[in-house]
Amino acid sequence: MADLLIRNIRPMGGEPADILIRDGRIAEMGVGLEAEGVPVEEGRGHLVIPGLVDAHTHLDKTTWDMDWHANDQVKTLRGRIDYEREQRLEIGIDPARQSMRHALGLIANGATLIRSHVDIDTRHGLAMFEGVAATREALRDHVEIEIVAFPQSGMMERKGTVELLDEALTQGAEVVGGIDPCGFERDPKGALDAIFGLAQKHGKPIDIHLHERGELGAFSMELIFERTRALGMQGKVGISHAFALGAPDWLRTQALIDEIAALDIPIFTTGAPSAEVPAIMRLKEAGIRMGGGCDGIRDTWGPWGLPDMLHRAEVIGMRNGLRCDFELEHALHICSGGAAQAMGRDDYRIETGGAGDLTLLQGQTLSHALVQRLPRPLVVKAGRVTARDGTVIGKDMP
Amino acid sequence: MADLLIRNIRPMGGEPADILIRDGRIAEMGVGLEAEGVPVEEGRGHLVIPGLVDAHTHLDKTTWDMDWHANDQVKTLRGRIDYEREQRLEIGIDPARQSMRHALGLIANGATLIRSHVDIDTRHGLAMFEGVAATREALRDHVEIEIVAFPQSGMMERKGTVELLDEALTQGAEVVGGIDPCGFERDPKGALDAIFGLAQKHGKPIDIHLHERGELGAFSMELIFERTRALGMQGKVGISHAFALGAPDWLRTQALIDEIAALDIPIFTTGAPSAEVPAIMRLKEAGIRMGGGCDGIRDTWGPWGLPDMLHRAEVIGMRNGLRCDFELEHALHICSGGAAQAMGRDDYRIETGGAGDLTLLQGQTLSHALVQRLPRPLVVKAGRVTARDGTVIGKDMP
């Protein structure tokens, strides 16, 4: 927590102002602010938004900055998962080193808050959790990393996985993860009862990967709705991907959307260009909290992606067919303040009392800044400067 | 047409070699080549592919390097077309200046060949054609620009448009364009008879924008097939976008694909992430020629896009769900040699006798180069160096 005065910046693209951060929070906003003894940064008229947020990524998976990983893999979800579980050791994806590289890339490009799913399975035990937890600790002054204990290889067929998740949650994982209860786990009741059981035991929220499409995804959602309501977990259960909401049957998806809104279930999207993604403007209309995420980047699943939430806002924007400025601003919002809200933090706002987590952007307007994607002039976490012009301050790439 | 010796480059990502260009064509390939009096470039082990090709763009539309154009427009195709027709003058999209900026961006990023649709309508006459033709002439040593005389505002309702297209073709437009015969023209027989009539009169090929989806697009395609066959124009009629090929009914689309293959109709795709695009790997299987294009970039239609065919190969690759290296190489191919083939040029090959149009890429492999998207070390058009490390040689931005 630090003090900082940033002069001449444009909050959310508006008129130039100064922002004074004290003890890591926005203490004052106005023109011509003075604060004796407080470090000063010149904002040079750049735009400022709440810190960029990656609300759905996998810090333990990337091959970023390693040799190119040539891929000739099969295309089923299970095939990719099995392949990755072995390739991790084969090509040496060290979870501490790689999560550090991935997170530093995100920070350099303006991120101040990250939710990372981290694989936990009986082949590797807690190795990935420990690696990412080490990065979380090493970067605690730069970025807040929230770890989802994620059973990527499934819990139902691989006995012992639930116990490992339980242990990770005991050791400090913040969120209970899960994966397709039908399509992957093959036992929706068993899988969801286990997930909600862990959440109840540890008093922690849930974030479930749901790649299932159409009616299968809708069925899994209904099972999630039932448990959320029965356990009074409104607002605490999130769904990632939620491809079933991209199905073409408008009436069917509207019924799901209405239920999601009623149960305050946040939706996390990566805007996957080859999948049936939820329409972000439709979910906005319904008042649903949403967060964007870059998902895995350059890993054994696939080659695409950058550790840059403006790039992800572009992917989400293009996938959603957004053209107008107010739409682009919403794409940016779900990769910034909106994503923080979806993660349960309501203080990502450029206003007095808001978090001192800020990212400066270059552009005439917010949309222009999104589309140009120029280096971020300044990134601030709780009043500390963490990156400048695309370079992280105080940490080197391992 | 020039001579050039490039040392130590990796043709299509293979083993290092030298390439000698004489009179604008590849004269010799091998290790340790010497050629007295011929300029030498050091390739420093970079990859080399045939020049990048933008096979579907709109050089006359971009606001690139102008003030940000805020957009609150309606979302129908007709609404966007009407809006643009007036905004061109309102915000001053000078076709000569803007096409120069757009083309210079493409060259800087490795393009050596461009097909640009250019709006021709009764509101602006041949102004856009003349502007882009001026750029074509000014850049003739840097890039080959092929102009499609394109009735963006339709021919059927706006009397006099066919005559303007006729005049543009007389003045040197290389290709006859067209737009949705049903969805936009509202008179498929009238529109297609006019398009094919112009093509027959001028002995020039056709490239029709087909945004129509599902059965409507299939119907328009059938009308195009009938005329192509009746007039013996196999190989001379192309379809851009072809969203109907992305419809989910596999049997229906396969029948269309089979017909397209039989009539040798090249398909041009932009990989639009929010539309039903043709699957490039499926069309490859069917032996159909394909070209990629960046479409309009940062124009009154929408904010997205860059003048960079590696960016477009990424958009196409992500939209098509490509993950494996051989798939990524195909995405790159349809933005390079494959696009040239789709435009009727078969000499975009790194082999003796091939065009001396080359682009160097940075990466361990072709897929790695595509994904990294680093500045192009060298771009060569007919043996002349046109760009180096992302900067055009011999032409400044207007």
UniProtKB/TrEMBL annotation, chains A, B:
Domain of life: Bacteria
GO MF: hydrolase activity, acting on carbon-nitrogen (but not peptide) bonds, in cyclic amidines
Domain Amidohydrolase: 44-386
Gene3D superfamilies assigned to the protein according to its UniProt record, in alphabetical order: Metal-dependent hydrolases, Urease, subunit C, domain 1
Pfam families named in the record: Amidohydro_3
NCBIfam families with a match to the protein in the record: PRK05985.1 (NF004636)
Record-given protein name: Cytosine deaminase
Source organism of the structure: Paracoccus alkanivorans
Phylogenetic classification of the source organism: Bacteria, Pseudomonadati, Pseudomonadota, Alphaproteobacteria, Rhodobacterales
